[in-house]
Amino acid sequence: xxxxxxxxxxxxxxxxxxxxxxxxxxxxxxxxxxxxxxxxxxxxxxxxxxxxxxxxxxxxxxxxxxxxxxxxxxxxxxxxxxxxxxxxxxxxxxxxxxxxxxxxxxxxxxxxxxxxxxxxxxxxxxxxxxxxxxxxxxxxxxxxxxxxxxxxxxxxxxxxxxxxxxxxxxxxxxxxxxxxxxxxxxxxxxxxxxxxxxxxxxxxxxxxxxxxxxxxxxxxxxxxxxxxxxxxxxxxxxxxxxxxxxxxxxxxxxxxxxxxxxxxxxxxxxxxxxxxxxxxxxxxxxxxxxxxxxxxxxxxxxxxxxxxxxxxxxxxxxxxxxxxxxxxxxxxxxxxxxxxxxxxxxxxxxxxxxxxxxxxxxxxxxxxxxxxxxxxxxxxxxxxxxxxxxxxxxxxxxxxxxxxxxxxxxxxxxxxxxxxxxxxxxxxxxxxxxxxxxxxxxxxxxxxxxxxxxxxxxxxxxxxxxxxxxxxxxxxxx
Length: 478
Ligand code: NAD
Description:
By secondary structure, the chain is of the alpha/beta class. The chain has 15 helices and 23 strands.
């Protein structure tokens, strides 16, 4: 039993004015602790602290900021084991994945630390000999971040490290379902010497917090990762108050296996990628399209792979897939599969809850799913894989592109012609061909269409936190 996850406001760890909420272990459904919930007075203190911190943090040299962030990264690495344990208890993913997420998050901090030192301005030739024209890239202001429960540390870290590296303070609302690992992430920044008010961590009723923080005057930028409906709502709020906004929303990623693909390599990647984090990954492949020549072999191999996965509590030896993160996801999977089956789909494996304790759902493979089934048009965000055959690659690409979401796309093919057809034709913010090649700190992560706008990671990710200040100076004789 762990205790109550606290908030960090103005450099003080504290409880919240709105009481607490329970935190559950999704493997058992048991209460494992509580999380402090903010009221408006707490948010006001966070806003005041962050506004004051902007004046000082934005003037700390990029070199010094970088040194502090690198220290936070080192602390995070050294605490990865303990933080990974907290994450598995509250989120359910297998412990090695949880620990790996923490280690990878330290790399994100290092990237932001170094990239923050390379935010360059521009000298623009002027029309007069005594005039200098400089375009500066300056920190935007206070950031309000909203991070989700599927990757409690690696989603929050992108927002925190990006903001801090660019010289912006942040108020981050981390997920109430998985608060303990986020507390420890933020503690690494505080222990590394990030001054009071630069990182503020809050929890609470998500809608109350976003509706209060987004319009607040000191907040200049909003960064949200979560579902499309919530993202649209927050985007509207941000637009109404003319605030910059990065939205990392859901997807429904196609996974195409072309006629000339290396099918063994495709299968080896597909099963692990689909069921990682029980499918609760925004870029998870969720519409498998396989050339008819390989279809039966692919389906058989995929079903075998799904059935061989060891599903269980995240600390148990050899477990490859944990429970779903909460009861909502379990209900969602049951509804997706029931809808598809009612429309004629065949359940090749899974399609049911495992046990009656915790939120386990069997790795599920469906075939013959009609295009109008909910599973084909809404993001499943769970361990359910529909597989369909195709005969023409052009048609498969067209189908892959027909949804309003466009986060990631995966494909296998070998000839140069196939690869360029896939790379050019697939509409997605991230296209990965013949391997898994997305989501590293140095590459841009983000979607097209309703999957959102803006990027996290890469040079593009840092751009989100700075704005342009143009200074034109004429030199005059006294
Ligand atoms: P949800 O839409 O209720 O919540 C998603 C996240 O947004 C949660 O962390 C939640 O706390 C937060 N949130 C919800 N309403 C908010 C508001 N008004 N203001 C600020 N934050 C708010 O959905 P859920 O049941 O928690 O998750 C399921 C859906 O969320 C999935 O279908 C998936 O599309 C999406 N999701 C996406 C990601 C991602 O990485 N893009 C991560 C988690 C969830």
